[in-house]
């Protein structure tokens, strides 16, 4: 579907996933084409991508660039297979590139780190094996290819009369990037800003600093851009960016208020807090992967509250315990 002249939205299926599809985007010019994100590595996704490119009058040979917003499987998974059919230059942020080996090639160490991370943050031994291994199934949806070009933010991809500025927006992933066409006031937002869904922002064993702080700062950075149309990786396109930014900021403040209220005057772990706050389904119905994301997302909120002085944190008996600061008036 052509969303505006020269830009096509490609709906690539994500089998057995509640999101249903990822929106990849094709920028078509007489000088060649740019593909933003790919879908994950299944025959169904590959065939859908090939068919929709053909409907737009583009073949794999016509691709000059493939730019990846971040290396989560639904965005990056097909790049290795595509490399067999195209000579397009693969563009990824430097931080995302640094994570490829540990996440998708030799991930035994990462699994062990995750197990310790979950243990420290209160996940019971009965739940840890399932949560630790929860991502292995989707790792099979990735065929790795190393980038031809790493970026840091501030670079431009110029193709035909398109000039797309690369905007580094860490948070959902540490090397997440958006693409901004200043002349057209169009933002390809990846998973950074979605129409309805609140992107997962998690703190895990590979996090540097606090991803939620990075995410909120990235929202502020995007708020400075004049944008008439947002093209997200999931959901519908939309044109009310300032209102959506306020909604996302409000969501995180509301969630932190809910987390503080969940302490009820007692020290608690991230797991205990996660199990007592609101999710899209009751806690007991969450699948292991969603439950793990819930714990790590809660942890990002807890650490921001800790940085703000709302909470305190202590290590005892191998667990990280959080408490509301000054709850006894001290």
Could you explain how this protein is built, in words?
The protein has 330 residues and is α/β, with parallel strands linked by helices. The chain has a domain of 211 residues: Metallo-beta-lactamase, Chain A (4-Layer Sandwich), CATH 3.60.15.10. 34% of the residues lie in helices and 22% in strands. It has eleven helices and 14 strands. It has a seven-stranded mixed β-sheet with strand order 1-2-3-4-5-6-7. A hairpin with an 8-residue loop joins strand 9 and strand 10. Helix 8 runs antiparallel to helix 9 and helix 9 packs across helix 11. The protein is globular, with a radius of gyration of 20 Å. It starts with a strand and ends in a 6-residue tail after the last strand. The model has no long low-confidence stretch (mean pLDDT 94).
């Amino acid at each position: 579907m052509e969303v505006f002249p020269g830009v096509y939205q490609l709906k690539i299926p994500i089998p057995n996933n509640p999101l249903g599809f990822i929106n990849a985007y094709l920028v078509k010019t007489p000088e060649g084409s740019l593909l933003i994100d790919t879908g994950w590595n299944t025959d169904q996704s590959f065939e859908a991508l090939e068919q929709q490119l053909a409907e737009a009058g583009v073949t794999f040979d016509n691709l000059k660039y493939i730019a990846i917003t971040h290396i989560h499987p639904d965005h990056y998974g097909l790049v290795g297979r595509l490399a067999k059919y195209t000579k397009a230059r693969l563009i990824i942020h430097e931080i995302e590139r640094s994570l490829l080996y540990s996440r998708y090639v030799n991930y035994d160490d990462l699994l062990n780190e995750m197990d310790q991370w979950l243990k420290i943050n209160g996940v019971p031994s009965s739940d840890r094996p399932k949560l630790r291994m929860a991502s292995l199934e989707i790792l099979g949806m990735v065929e790795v290819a190393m980038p031809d070009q790493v970026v840091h933010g501030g670079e431009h991809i110029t193709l035909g009369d398109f000039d797309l500025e690369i905007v580094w927006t860490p948070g959902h992933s540490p090397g997440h990037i958006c693409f901004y066409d200043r002349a057209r006031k169009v933002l390809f937002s990846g998973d950074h800003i979605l129409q309805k869904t609140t992107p997962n922002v998690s703190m895990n064993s590979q996090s540097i600093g606090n991803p939620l702080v990075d995410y909120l700062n990235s929202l502020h950075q995007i708020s400075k851009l004049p944008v008439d149309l947002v093209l997200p990786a999931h959901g519908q396109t939309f044109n009310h960016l300032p209102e959506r930014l306020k909604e996302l900021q409000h969501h995180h403040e509301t969630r932190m208020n809910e987390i503080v209220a969940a302490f009820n005057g007692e020290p608690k772990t991230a797991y205990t807090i996660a199990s007592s706050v609101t999710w899209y389904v009751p806690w007991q119905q969450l699948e292991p992967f969603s439950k793990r994301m819930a714990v790590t997302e809660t942890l990002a909120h807890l650490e921001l509250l800790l940085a703000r002085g709302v909470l305190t944190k202590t290590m005892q008996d191998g667990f990280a315990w959080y408490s509301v600061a000054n709850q006894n008036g001290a």
